[in-house]
Amino acid sequence: MMTRTATRWKPLLLFAAALAAVALLRADISPQQRYVNRFAALAVTEMYRSGVPASITLSQGLLESRYGLSALAAEGHNHFGIKCHNDWKGKSMKVDDDAKGECFRVYDADIDSFHDHSDFLRYRDRYKFLFDFAITDYKAWANGLKKAGYATDPAYPAKLIKLIEDYGLSRFDTARPSDFETGGRFADLGAEVPSAGSGHTDKPLNNSALYPKTPKQESTSQTETRAEKKARIKEEKKALKQRQKEARRHSVLPVAEPERLPESPLTLEEDEPVEKEQREEFHFQMGRPIYKQNGVPFLYAMEDETYRIIAEENNIMYKQLLRYNDLTADERLLPGTRVYLQAKKNQTRKGLDKYIVGQDGESLREICQRFGVKLSSIQKINGFNASHSLREGDTILLRK
To answer: Is residue 221 part of a domain?
Structure first.
């Protein structure tokens, strides 16, 4: 027969047993699962900020950092093996990797490493095609990373895919940051929930509009030969030039008004024809496509054109046109070159904060022409002088 004292202590004993069971279960969690539990919320927040799938971020972190136990991750908060590169001004540590004593970045906190990893993929040209894939297509992303040269290991995609499938990481590609907060569906992971100021939005960002594109040609038969395509393009150019000559020299072409900021902080408009409904009168040439980038109208140069010819045909002062395009003197104008018809903006629109130089030889002016921003403004933002030269891996700030 149980005594009154034993009866009184029974609830406490049961509670202690439950705590012991929970502790035992937690002790049985693998290092890999513990890593996922800890960083899942951060990976999802980065997905909403940058468009990189959370499953890819987590699987790369697991693989590159040995689930957080490598010296680089434990001591340097570097989870993705990102090396110093030319523009790194922070702390670093030497680690034997492809070569002995290579320089790797050291971060103040884990969140800085995750942020840098997202930007590394988001702002480098060689990874831009990844953002054409669906955010839930982790296999395409895994294989795309290998194709872009992220890793030299031929089994790299298979390793990422196995980690994603073994630990069910794809479920985080449809998650929201709020799912990790109190009462959310992943609250039991005990993940470190980034603050509301981390920059996430209402839906994950995954679009190729981060990278300005040239207008697409009309579709043609798949059986068209290279010679036929070349002849067709030549005829199209010839016909366009003929239409230009026949058009009234100072006809009015409607140009788009400055567009509103997009709802998504990463959605940058592609080069697109101006809309007829949005009217603002400028004496641009009639019968020729006018596009816009960063809200600034421009056209693509054709064969044998010069800046002087474009200025005359569009009723713009010649020297003014040169200034619009960051030039002080005329230069050879190659077909397909972008020529702005108004002054460019001082910075890019919200969401495209920087650009990472993809190859040696790329000039700052070329970058400014690509994104529709003034060369002088970008030089000022970055503290560059007129003679500053860029190197592969340099980071260029596009906004203040």
So the answer is: no
Top pLDDT among 123 and 215 is at 123
Which of 173, 206, 239 is a domain's end point? Answer: 206
Q: How confident is the model at residue 159 (pLDDT cuts 50, 70, 90)?
A: very high
Q: Which of 113, 24, 117 is nearest to 68 (CA)?
A: 113
CB count, 10 Å around CB of 265? Answer: 18
**Per-residue exposure over 93-118, b if at least 16 CB sit within 10 Å of its own CB, e if not:** bebeeeeeeeebbbbeebbebbbbbb
Buried b (16+ CB within 10 A) or exposed e, 32-45: bbebbbbbbbbbbb
* Domain co-membership, 300 together with 194: no
117 within domain boundaries: yes
Among the listed residues 137, 134, 154, the one whose alpha carbon sits nearest the alpha carbon of residue 146: 154
Range of the domain at 252: 228-397
12 located within any domain: no
**First-to-last CA distance in the chain?**
78
Judge whether 220 lies within some domain.
no
Q: What's the whole-number average pLDDT of the chain?
A: 75
Structural domain count, the chain: 2
Q: Are 82 and 60 in contact (CB under 8 A)?
A: no
Expressed in percent and rounded to 5, the helix, strand and coil fractions of the chain are 45, 10, 50
Of 46-60, 165-179, 247-261, 344-358, least confident by mean pLDDT is 247-261
pTM score over 0.70: no
Query: Of 49-58, 92-101, 326-335, which one has max mean pLDDT?
Result: 49-58
What is the distance between the alpha carbons of residues 372 and 344, in angstroms, rounded to a whole number? 5
Name the residue among 199, 150, 242 with its Cα closest to residue 50.
199
| CA 287/CA 295 separation, integer angstroms | 21
